[in-house]
Amino acid sequence: MTSARITVDRDFTIAPVPRRLFGSFVEHMGRCVYTGIFEPGHATADENGYRTDVLELTRELGVSIVRYPGGNFVSGYRWEDGVGPVEQRPRRLDGAWHTIETNAFGLHEFAGWAKKAGVEIMEAINLGTRGVDEARALVEYANHPGGTAWSDLRIANGAKEPFGIKVWNLGNELDGPWQIGHKTPDEYGRLAQEAGKAMKLVDPTIELVAVGSSGAHMPTFGQWEYTVLSHAYDEVDYVSLHAYYQEHDGDALSFLASANDMDYFIESVIATVDAVKAKRQTSKTINLSFDEWNVWYQRGLETEDQPHVVEQQPWREHPRLIEDTYNVTDAVVVGTYLNSLLRHGDRVTIANQAQLVNVIAPIRSEEGGPAWRQTIYWPFARMAELASGEILRVAAVGDKFESKEYGDAEFVDASSTYDADRGRLVLFLANRGLDEEADVTFALRGLAAGSVTRAEVLTVPEGGDRFTANTLESQDAVGMRRLENVHIDESGQVRLVLPALSWAFVELAVTES
Ligand code: AHR
Question: Would the pTM of this model clear 0.90, i.e. be above it?
């Protein structure tokens, strides 16, 4: 058994919990839109063709904001193709994913879905093949009340009220050579500056996200952010980060320690952004939008849903693409990414798990069939539900393990929030010990723990192993169950034992002391 001692202090706060940290992503990719959120004719489809089973799971997941329509897709997309009478919309080749895009689903359909899902829209514009004029036209179409050509077209297309989209991505992954319209940092920085300026001239209330690096491993990482922001600092409000991780060659310990890399990535981007701030001698702070993050098995799979396999096939509508099936280990790792994001919630104020349905997603659905929760659904859903009020600084002292790729890591990884209005403190915990239980002591300062109101854990189910997953045949193999034996001792400390390889939360009723 390993041990960890965790302390929080009521006054040592990081920031209010940013609700937009619980974002997701819907891309026109694979079966995320078609047969994911949208499937006219499905037994659960409503009058608009939205799958209500997926809508319900989305609401239960607690998603706050959804990025749309891409991703790599957006860098070749013409948004005008997706508005107006459906029967007149063009069929196009989407080069990013070797797919035929029917455009049966576009901005209006997404806005209607977002309303039903109760989520905010985060709209990405195409700065790969397009530019300033199309960007400002889209803002006018979406947000201007009426009386101009673009806004009146929106009204004619059925939306009297503006969509009121606040957050906009200025393109996607334009640092990546795979991206349609890949650019140098100077080329992109100037384009983002001019597009951002023109968009804010149409609607000054919008918030803009500049493209950051597609990963901390990119050869241009650091230089990209510095150069882009040297051009566009005044126009933009956030810079983006994207990161995907997977277990390589059975090296579970490195995978379990991979949130170290997320911490490093976030802290390096903060340092770079603030270096530009210092150089410009400005008081304006740019925050971070971690608008793609997840586990993604990018290497080692030869299944029919891999992009390099799909590329060899004839052009098709919504082929299966990267429909990763997640296991217990993946869920624990996702829990550590959520902890990392929450601990950096003073600067990471938007984050989007990629993606929502089918494509590397917490929700899976089958065409004409059911929808179900993957293992990674649970840490997200519980944290989105319970993290409220202020993020607390977590001081943790405990046993560590070594990992080949990401150095030493604590077995027990934690984050915590305190909601004064509700008298609620929540501790989110991951035990990264593959075989070791963890003995956890949790001390509170400035707060007194009255009772344990709820405690749950996700771990290897009986008869299963760390690869157990929720599948079409076995949709609830892995889930949350009550965490037994969490108690408050005579000194007011909370004591508990975490099972090996687990993700858990403990909710406490607390008073200020
Ligand atoms: O989320 C899948 C893809 O990953 C996105 O389209 C792209 O932005 C990233 O490389």
Answer: yes
Catalytic residue at 292? yes
Check pocket membership of 173 for ligand 1, CB cut-off 6 A: yes
pLDDT tens for 245-302 read 999 999 999 999 999 999 999 999 999 999 999 999 999 999 999 999 999 999 888 8
Catalytic residue (one of 292, 323, 410, 507): 292
CA of 72 to the centre of ligand 1 (A): 6
DSSP tag of 83: S
For residue 196, give the DSSP letter.
Answer: H
**The total number of structural domains that make up the chain:** 2
Same domain, 46 and 114: yes
Of the candidates 194, 182, 187, 239, the one whose C-alpha atom is nearest the C-alpha of residue 212 is 239
Same domain, 435 and 451: yes
Range of the domain at 445: 2-10+390-512
Asked if residue 360 and residue 408 are part of one domain, the reply reads no
Give tens-digit pLDDT for 184-243. Answer: 999 999 999 999 999 999 999 999 999 999 999 999 999 999 999 999 999 999 999 999
One domain for residues 301 and 405: no
Are 400 and 80 contacting, i.e. CB atoms less than 8 angstroms apart?
A: no
Report the sign of the C-alpha dihedral through residues 304, 44, 68, 330, in that order.
Answer: negative
Q: Residue 490, class by beta-carbon neighbours within 10 Å (0-12 exposed, 13-18 middle, 19+ buried)?
A: exposed
**How many CB atoms lie under 10 A from the CB of residue 27?**
26
Give the pair of three-digit tokens for residue 495: 């004591």
Query: At which residue do the structure tokens 């600084």 appear?
Result: 393
Q: Which is the catalytic residue, given 27, 101, 173, 323? A: 173
The full DSSP string for 195-206 is: HHHHHHHH-TT-
* Ligand 1 binding pocket includes 94 (Cβ within 6 Å): no
Q: Are 238 and 209 in contact (CB under 8 A)?
A: yes
The CATH number of residue 95's host domain is 3.20.20.80
Domain boundary among 326, 359, 386: 386
Atom of ligand 1 at shortest range from CA of 292: 1
Which of 386, 410, 428 lies at the terminal end of a domain, its last residue? 386
70 lines ligand 1 (CB under 6 A): yes
What are φ and ψ of residue 370, in 5° steps? -85, 175
Let me know whether 241 and 190 are in one domain: yes
CA distance 342 to 337: 9
